[in-house]
Amino acid sequence: MTLVWFRRDLRLGDLPTITAAADSGDPVLGLFVLDDRLLKASGGPRRDFLFRSLAALDEQMGGRLLVVNGDPETVVPKVARAIDAECVHVSADYGPYGRERDERVGKQVLLVTTGSPYAVAPGRVVKSDGEPYKVFTPYFRQWLDHGWRGPADTSASTLDWIDPADVSGPRRVQIPTEEDGSDFAAGEKAASTQWSEFLERVKGYDDERNRPDLDATSRMSVYLKYGNIHPRTMLKDLGALRSEGSAAYRRQIAWRDFYADILFQRPDSARENYVKKFDKIELDSGKHADELFAAWCEGRTGFPIVDAGMRQLNSEKWMHNRVRMIVASFLVKDLHLPWWRGARYFMNTLVDGDLASNQHGWQWTAGSGTDASPYFRVFNPITQGEKFDPTGDYVRRWVPELRGEEGKAVHTLKFGRPQGYPDPIVDHKHEREVAIARFKAL
Questions:
Q1: Which of 128, 225, 228, 384 has most Cβ atoms within 10 angstroms of its Cβ?
Q2: Tens of pLDDT, residues 312-359
Q3: Which residues of 233-264 are buried (b: 16+ CB within 10 A; e: fewer)?
Q4: CATH architecture of 276-440
Q5: If we measure between CA atoms, which residue out of 354, 365, 296, 355 comes closest to residue 328?
Q6: CATH superfamily of 1-116
Q7: CA 164, CA 173: separation in Å to the nearest integer?
């Protein structure tokens, strides 16, 4: 018998792991381990989506997914022994914890790694001298030249799945549920449906992707996070199109690979500044800083576009990407708080929280990351709102106190603030000067 250990690949289509397992010709047991170390580090929305993805996968497999609790170092070898499996088939995990976990498990059982969650696996795209890229644009050019494999032709019927009831060993547990969820449908079928719907409007993606008032983004990040779909499948579909929108979206997939590569090369950058000189930048702390942070989290800063973004996050467990940059800039450069504090809140709240993309997206805004936005580039939350939410519809949707304000005046509130909506918690012009002064002090 053969064992397939699912992790960040919760699907059956385009899954090279299945192809490798099928080569043995033996019946296959599908396994997922509920790892408390990962579950405790995940926010409720991510746990909820994970559990619902597992339920969808189990249904695809005819109820034959073995779900167990425990430490993979103990559980995986135990299951492998229970079915006399000579090896365990997995997709590669390039995250800091995943690499360490697989090294431990691999000392007890042979792990056969086929494929990864990325179009181009971390470590593959390097300079001519073998060094990793630190800047996206040359990485992107080489990423395109390197290319990627086509989708694997796999499905539920590719393998003869073993019924866990016929296996003695670790006790099968019921897939948990989580109350703090999102409205995102989970599973491979939901991912395919969402992707097909987006492809019908991808042509306008390049022009409209920065408009949070429009339904112009794909919302595929959560499906990529849990492997409900593979980027190869998406790239194949995009390759059949010829538009600026499809090209712009392909570039976003490359950014995802780039950040995964950076984290692979520098695991410390998940928690620490990529550019070490930023370790010395002056940051605020104490009771007042905590009060400002709470106002930011709750969407009551008095800056409409910032408050709209945070309220969307708290309600939908998701936020438009342009607004993620705006609220991140506000936290770091207007409130002078550490980027990792905001990144942690995002990871606890976002349904699509991905360690590489989240941490390095925050560092890009903070100026401390690879290929980062210059620190002296401080987003003005009012002009950002006017530029990217020109109708004001996004703010009015998420900040009901401002629904009486017409057009882009909702961003300036130059005629006064409605009762119940707070005054700005900081003076942006002053705090911008403070931020730039602190940067220069480095």
A1: 228
A2: 999 999 999 999 999 999 999 999 999 999 999 999 999 999 999 999
A3: bbbebbeeeeeebbebbbeebbbbbbbbbbbb
A4: Orthogonal Bundle (1.10)
A5: 365
A6: HUPs (3.40.50.620)
A7: 11
Mark residue 217 as left, alpha or beta (left: phi above 0; alpha: psi -120 to 50; beta: remaining).
beta
Does residue 247 have a pLDDT over 80?
A: yes
Is-contact 238 336, C-beta < 8 A? no
pLDDT at 369 over 80: yes
- Output the pTM of the full model: 0.96
Separation between Cα atoms, residue 192 and residue 233, nearest integer Å:
10
DSSP characters over 130-163: SPBP-SHHHHHHHHHHH--PPPP---GGGS-BPP
- Sign of the Cα pseudo-torsion (256, 262, 267, 269, in order): negative
pLDDT above 90: residue 288: yes
- The pair phi, psi for residue 223, each rounded to 5°, is -70, -35
Find, among 17, 11, 14, the residue nearest to 3 by Cα. Answer: 17
Beta bridge partner(s), residue 110: 87
Q: Are 139 and 125 in contact (CB under 8 A)?
A: yes
**Has residue 375 got a pLDDT over 80?**
no
Q: How many residues does the chain have?
A: 442
Determine whether domain 117-150+187-265 maps to CATH 1.25.40.80. Answer: yes
| Selection from 432, 227, 201, 210 nearest residue 334 by Cα | 432
Distances (CA, A) of 266 to 273, 276, 369: 10, 12, 11
Where do the domains of the chain lie? Answer: 1-116, 117-150+187-265, 276-440
